[in-house]
Amino acid sequence: MEAMRAVQILNPSGEVTMPRPERTRVMCVANQKGGVGKTTTTVNLAVALALHGNRVLVVDLDPQGNASTGLNVPHHTGVPDVYDCLINTVPLEEVAQEVEGIPNLWCVPATIDLAGAEIELVSVVARESRLARAIAAYPGHFDYVFIDCPPSLGLLTVNALVAAQEVLIPIQCEYYALEGLNQLINNINLVRQHLNPKLEVSTILLTMYDRRTRLADAVEQDVRNHFGDKVLQAVIPRNVRVSEAPSYGQSVMTYDPGSRGATSYFEAAQEIAERGIKEPVIRNA
Ligand SMILES: Nc1ncnc2c1ncn2[C@@H]1O[C@H](COP(=O)(O)OP(=O)(O)OP(=O)(O)O)[C@@H](O)[C@H]1O
Ligand SMILES: [Mg+2]
Questions:
Q1: What family does this chain come from, according to its entry (predicted)?
Q2: Which ligand minimizes its atom distance to the CA of 240?
């Protein structure tokens, strides 16, 4: 019911479509800076695309388990999770859970066990490509796989970068936003050179934009000058409904589909979907 209501409010005429890509787009949502909107972006884009007919898998790769919480997927101790896939090579399909209330959406949860993985991975075989293998072996045909990274550049994020073709970087519209971004880009370049030649930064999303401040505007200009058309036209405003939604185990798309947070994420998802069928770089990846 909520899913239907959300679609009716967000897309009343049904005119907006989110075309499915020819091949699975594996997108790593990364920024080693904490609290910039990685998880919020992962959850809301995933829900928006799934509500519009795409088959979507969210992989929660953060021991905090925020994406699992946001999608209301059980992830207490003892629940099979992404740790089991990375360390014990359990197939992803054995741990993926259907997200209740959102057709076409699945989530591989993270439990607190994942906190140990960063260290345990150091001594396993093919430590950087465990997730890539697990995703490649998944028999489900997804249109999108979103990997929600932790706020660090350790082996978990490296696994996400090796598994993906695209990196989506959420950037918070605030003063220190661009600091540290070079380090992320350097890491992406290293992964591309040595482990995953297909990797591209395809998408930048400006988050928590506060239009009352001139600073937000300045950051937006800076980011657009630097990254050009990788930056989505849609900008996510700071919106209290976005931050309330997770405490109800919902995305803002279903929690308050009429809010500015929901409509902005809806527009961002639409742009991503359209780029996916246009851009040859992505199609050939
Ligand atoms: N557009 C928004 N408006 C208001 N609050 C937001 C918005 N986007 C995210 N938040 C809030 O900001 C906080 C950080 O967001 P989020 O958890 O998505 O960031 P993150 O990058 O995943 O953090 P971490 O680095 O810890 O994983 C959360 O409390 C979230 O609810
Ligand atoms: Mg997060």
A1: Belongs to the ParA family.
A2: 1
Which residue, by CA, sits nearest to atom 10 of ligand 1?
Answer: 243
Q: Best substitution site from 45, 181, 232, 243 to test ligand 1's pocket, by max atoms within 8 Å of Cβ? A: 243
Burial class (CB in 10 A: 0-12, 13-18, 19+), 166: buried
Any ligand 1 atom below 6 A from CB of 132: no
CATH topology (fold) of 24-278? Rossmann fold (3.40.50)
Domain layout of the chain by residue ranges: 24-278
Measured from the Cα of 36, ligand 1's closest atom is 21
pTM of the model: 0.95
Structure tokens at 139: 């028999």
Q: Which ligand is nearest to the CA of 35?
A: 1
Over the stretch 176-232, which tens digit does the pLDDT of each residue have?
888 889 999 999 999 999 999 999 999 999 999 998 888 899 999 999 999 999 999
Q: How far apart are the C-alpha atoms of 61 and 159, rounded to whole Å?
A: 9
Cβ-based neighbours of 229, under 8 Å, separated by 6 or more? none
Q: Are 35 and 151 in contact (CB under 8 A)?
A: yes
Higher pLDDT pick, 45 / 138: 45
**Residue 285's pLDDT is what?**
41
Does the pLDDT of residue 158 top 70, yes or no? yes
The whole-number pLDDT of residue 277 equals 84
| pLDDT in the model for residue 212 | 86
| CB distance 243 to ligand 1 below 6 Å | yes
